[in-house]
Amino acid sequence: MNSDRFSSAPGGDVVVPVSALNRAIASMLERSFPLTWISGEVSNFTRAASGHWYFSIKDAQAQMRCVMFRGRAQYAEFTPREGDRIEVRALVTMYEPRGEVQLNVEAIRRTGQGRLFEAFLRLKAQLEAEGLFDAGRKRALPTHPRAIGVITSMQAAALRDVLTTLARRAPHVPVIVYPAPVQGAGSAEKLTAMLDAANARAEVDVIVLCRGGGSIEDLWSFNDETLARAIAASAIPVVSGVGHETDFTIADFAADVRAPTPTAAAELVSPQRALLLRELDQRHAALARGFGRLMERRAQQLDWLARRLVSPGERLAQQRTHLRQLAIRLASAGSRTTAQARAQFNIAQMRWRRMRPDASAQRVQVESLARRLDSAFARGRERETVRVAGLAARLEVLSPQRTFERGYAALLDAQSGAAVRSPGALKPGKRLTVHLAQGSADIALADVQSRLSEDF
Predict the structure, then answer these.
(1) Mean confidence (pLDDT) of the chain
(2) For domain 116-271, which CATH number applies: 3.30.420.40, 3.40.50.11270, 3.40.50.10550, 3.40.50.720?
(3) What is the pTM of this model?
(4) Is 87 helix (H, G, I), strand (E, B) or coil?
C-alpha cells in the first residue's frame, strides 16, 4: 500500500482510507487467484442496457456475484437462464465502490461441456488419422435419385421440415423414413441400426441423417464412434443435416456431404421439380427444332435427287437428239469442197507475199559497210606497223648489246648478280662475271693496283 495516501492519528496509528483498502484487497485477490474454471447454478441473471451480464452462481453452501462485460458476452454460445448449471472461467476481483468480491467472467459453458468437447476432439482426431474423413473416399450425390431415405425421429421438427422441402421440390420422388430416436440413452445404437437396415434393403439412392439444433449434450448421439464408422462404410451416400449451421458433429465429418441444416440437406438431395420441368421443356423444344431441321434437309436432298433422276425413255430421247446433231455436223464438215480450201490457201499465200520484206536494198547496204570495214582495218594495220617499226628502232638504239659491240663490258658480282659500280668493290679473290658483246665469262681478281681507282 502507498503510505503517502495514509494519515496518522494523534496517537501515531496509521489511518487507511476505505478506497485504498479496497484497492489493496482487489490487487491481492487478482495476484492470488489466477483465471480459474468455477462451476455453479445461475441465479439473478440480468442483462443490462449496456450489454453487460450480471448474475450469481451458487451451490448448496455458497454463492458468488459475477459480471461478464459485453466484449466477452457477445461471443458466448448461449445465454444462461435461471437454474442452469454452468462453468465460468473467471478472475477473482473486488468491486471497489461497494467493497464486494465478485468474479470477472471471461468465458462461459454449460456444465460438462468441456469434458464432452474434449472427448469430441479426441474422437475426431482419431478418426481423421484413420482416414475416415478423407475427401477422396466421399462420393457424389445422385443427380436424380429414385428414392430418398430419411433417418430421424418421427416426432422431430426436422422431419417435418425435410418432408415439406422434399414435397415442394421433388413431389415425384418417394421418401422412406427410418425412425430412430435422436437423443437419449441408446439413440446412437438405434441410429446405426437404421443406417444398416437402409443399406441392407437398398431401396433408396441417398440417405439424409438429420435432427434439429440443441446443446452439445442433445447432439451427442451423433458424436458416436460406431455411428461414424457405419456412415463411412455405407454403400449409399449419406448427407448429414444435424443441428444449426454452427453445430458440428462427428457424423458431419464422416458423411459424404454436410448440410448446415435439415432443410438444406433436403435441398441437396432433391432435384427441383420446376427446374427439371423447365429443362425438359427446353430439351423437348431443342429436339423438335432439330427434328424439323433434319426433315427440311432430307426434303431438300430428296428434291435434288429427284431432279437428277431421269426416266429411261427420256434419256434415250436425249441420246437420239444428240446423235442427230452429231450427224448434221459430220455431214456439214464433209460437204465443204477442195476449191473453197484452195481459195483460202491462195488468199493466205497472197497475204504472205505482200507481207514478205525486200532484202536487196539491205544487201547493198551490208556490202558497202563490209568494204568500209575492210578499208578501216587496212589503214589501222598500216598505222600500227609504222608505230611498231619506230619503237623497234628506238629499242635498237637503247639496247645494251649495241653498247657491248662498241667495246664496253658489264661487271656483275658472281654471287649476288649485282652490278659493280665502284672501284672499292674490286678486291683480290673476288669473283666477277664479265658480259661482253659476244658472251660472258667468270673471272677472279688476283691483284688490283691501287692506282686503278685513281685512273677512274
Answers:
(1) 84
(2) 3.40.50.10550
(3) 0.46
(4) strand
